[in-house]
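Hey, can you fold this one?
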Amino acid sequence: MTLRLGSIVEALGGELHGDAKLLIDGLAPLESAQPGQLSFLSHPKYQSQLADSRASCVIVSPQFQDQASLRGTCIVTDQPYLYFARVTQLWKKNLPASTGPRIHPSAVIDPNAKVHPSARIGALCVLEAGAVIGAQTELKSRVTVGERCVVGERCIIHSGVVIGADGFGFAPNAGAWEKIEQLGAVRIGNDVEIGANTCIDRGALQDTVIEDGVKLDNLIQIGHNVHVGQHTAMAGCAGVAGSATIGAHCTVGGGAIVLGHLTLADGVNISAASVATRSIHQPGHYTGMFPIDGNAAWEKNAAALKQLASLRERIRALEALLNTKQNSN
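Sure. Predicted structure:
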């Protein structure tokens, strides 16, 4: 498949500097792009790759227009990465449409489940009683949507996702465990994307909620009664324990953990492999990593660690005082 460069700009905007009739037959990163391909420069640290790139056209910000023009054709836009994302959408839209059935014959759909006529259900999917799948939503192969769980419109649910498994709830009873029945469901908003093999547990009493525009990577665990605010994004292997509330426009890095019953305010960014051990009520970037140890020793060390900044200032003050006395002698 090829797209004329001028047609890309006509569809997406931007300033084209070069031949509008140039044909693009692929998209690629700067360092590996070949003639006929379109690439982008979104971060200044990669500008050294620009001059040597063999791409037929590069998407750049106004800051790099002169540098890009020296090497050849370019598209200038304020947000090159966003522009490239939209190019990928345009590219996919022009690929040959799927000719397979809207609902794969191997899918198992309960008679009491509701699937919008524009939704697509992949091979070996299971929709249990009362499940609802919204308009233009696509379930890839082997997705399970449990009873009474709702998936909104224009969602993409990747292979192996389980929505509505029982939450992890057990009461201790004379050395054994008594199951707490999980009576809630899962409600997923519109424009949500969920990566492969991610699990979202149903609520114990109230529903687990994933709001509009949330993006979840592969292999994420969302516990029961969690509430995730709109347009929050989580990277692979993150975990959110039961009854945590995560605000809107947050990010959670790969392998990070949010403990149960905590609250993260809107606009909180958790670094990869961090553990959120307390609620965070102010937006910002937070990191927390500490070597594993016996719990009692770990708590003492963690408490001491929090005093390091003030101890450093006290040591500096004592050193200054000592230097003053030595100089006076």
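The helical segments are 5-12, 65-71, 80-94, 295-305, 308-328. Let me know if you want another pass with a different chain boundary.
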